[in-house]
Amino acid sequence: GWRRRIGLIDWPRARLRWCSTPRTRRPAPTAARSWSATAPATSASTAAQRAAVADPRSYWRGTLRRSVPRFALERFAGFMRTNVPAPVAPLFRWPGGKRWLANWLVESFPPDRERYFEPFLGGGAVYFRLQPTEATLSDANVDLIECLTAVRDEPEAVIAKLAAMPQGKETYRRVRRTRPRSSAGRAARFIYLSNLAFNGIYRVNRDGRFNVPYSGRRYPSLRDGDVIRAASSVLATAEILACDFEVAVRGATPKDLCYFDPPYTVAHENNGFLKYNQRIFSWDDQVRLAAVARRLADRGCYVAVSSAAHESVRPLYSDFREVRLSRASVVSASTRGRAQVGESVFLSWD
Q1: Which one-letter DSSP state was computed for residue 260?
Q2: Which of 63, 48, 54 lies closest to 6 in space, CA to CA?
Q3: pLDDT per residue as tens digits for the range 187-200
Q4: Residue 341, SS3?
Q5: For residue 345, is pLDDT > 80?
Q6: Could you give the CA distance from residue 65 to residue 62 in angstroms, rounded to a whole number?
Q7: Contacts within 8 Å (CB) and 24+ apart, 310-316
C-alpha cells in the first residue's frame, strides 16, 4: 500500500531510509538499508535521494505526490510545517472532553482568527492543541481554574507535590480526604484525583467534598514533570478566569474565535450526561448560550458550539452551519450507556 512506499527521513542526521521500495531503487546492501548524505552517488536514484535530503520540500511536492493519495500527503505534510505547534497533552481526563475532536476542530477554525475564547474549558484539549498566542480561558469550576493558574505560575512547586503522591488505592483515599493549604498543593491534588478517579469524573457532594471512587488505573505521566512544564509554557500567555460564560466573552471583538463546549443538556433533560452536571448547566442556560452565540456572530466573531445531536437543540442554532458527528460514549458507568452517540458542532462561518 501507499504507506509502505513512503520514505522516512531522519532530518537531524540527514539520512534517508526506505521502508519498502522497488528492488531497483533500494540502496546497496552494504549501506544497511540506509543512505548517508556523504556517500558517493552511484546511480540516478541515489542522486535523487540525495536531492531529497537537501531539499525536502521539493521531494514532498514531487516524488510522493505521484505515489501517495492527496489527503494522506496533506495530513503528513502538516507535521513538516514549522508553524504548526507540537501537540501538548491535557493535564487530566475530563468527562465530555474533546481530545477525539481537537484535530478536526483546529483544522476547521478560520485561519484569520485573532484572540481565542473558551468559556467551558474543562480539560482544555482544544486549547492545548491550538496553542493560540492570546487567549481567555474560563470555567465555572473554581477548583479547575485554581489548578490551571498554579500550573501556569508555579509549575515546579506543582511537580514537587505530585512527586510525593504514590499511585494506589490507599493513597488516593488519603489525598481525597485532604485539603492542602497551598495553591500548588491543591493543584497537585486536583490533577491527581482527576486522573485516577473513575472515568475521570470530577464530582463533589453537597459539602463540597470530592467523592468519586478510585479507578484502579495507574498513569506514569503523572510523575513526569515535563508534562506539567509543557502545559505551563502553553498557559503562560493565557488569561484564566472563574466566571460565567456570558461574562467571559464580553470583550470579544470581530474575528475573535469563541469556542463553547458546554455540558450537554437537551430540552427533556434526560440525556446520559446531565446527571453529572445538574447544578452546573440547565436547559435555560442552553437557551441563554444560544443567544450569546448569535450576538457574537452578529458582532463579527467566529463562533463554534459543541452540543448533543438532538432535535431540541438544532432550532437554537438555525443560523449556524451544523456538522454531525458520532462517537462512542465513555461517560456512562455501564456498557449499555456507552453506545454510539451523536454530537453536533455548530459553526457561524461557512
Answers
A1: E
A2: 63
A3: 999 999 999 999 88
A4: strand
A5: yes
A6: 5
A7: 310/266, 310/267, 310/271, 310/342, 312/266, 312/267, 312/268, 313/266, 313/267, 313/286, 313/344, 314/344, 316/286, 316/287, 316/290
